[in-house]
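Is this the right way to post structure tokens for a design question? Let me know if I should format differently. Anyway, here goes:
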């Protein structure tokens, strides 16, 4: 297992100017603008590829899940499930119109390894519909194949993925 820590600081510019980077260290930022600012602040040093956004980090954990064609295939499957299972036409239309948000929620649930959501009788119909859709979606064979056991992800592979993106994004 790898160690990690969460740190906060009042003046990020000073913190990152004076920090001594360790070999296997990553800094994950919430926004790309902040990550870019810190990369510029660090200049061309080796530590420049140690600062990442949360989204970049997530993508490095399971690159296949975040490929454009995979996402399109997943959204098509999700839309089909919504159309076939949500009987309330208005609710069905709302879910389809907001497919990006529904997809993002499903993706998040997959990433936290939530395989099935419990459906209870007293839940609002919107929540029941989403849970039913997610349960069917998460049970699709190609979705199961995309899942990762995050406990078994190799740290070195994550770093290699991030470094590949770093080279693609910042050396063009």
């Amino acid at each position: 297992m790898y160690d990690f820590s969460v740190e906060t600081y009042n003046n990020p510019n000073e913190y990152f100017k004076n920090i001594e980077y360790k070999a296997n260290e990553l800094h994950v930022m919430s926004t790309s603008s902040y990550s870019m600012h810190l990369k510029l602040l660090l200049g061309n040093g080796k530590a420049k590829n140690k600062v990442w956004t949360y989204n970049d980090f997530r993508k490095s954990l399971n690159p296949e899940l975040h490929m454009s064609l995979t996402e399109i295939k997943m959204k098509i499957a999700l839309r089909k499930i919504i159309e076939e299972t949500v009987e309330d036409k208005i609710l069905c239309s709302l879910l389809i119109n907001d497919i990006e948000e529904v997809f993002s929620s499903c993706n998040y649930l997959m990433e936290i390894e939530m395989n099935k959501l419990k459906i209870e009788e007293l839940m609002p119909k919107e929540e029941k519909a989403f849970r039913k859709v997610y349960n069917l979606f998460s049970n699709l064979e190609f979705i199961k194949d995309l899942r990762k056991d995050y406990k078994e992800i190799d740290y070195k592979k994550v770093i290699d993925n991030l470094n590949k993106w770093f080279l693609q994004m910042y050396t063009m």
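Format looks fine. Someone answered above. Worth noting: The chain has a mean pLDDT of 83. The chain has two domains: 12-61+151-170, 64-146.
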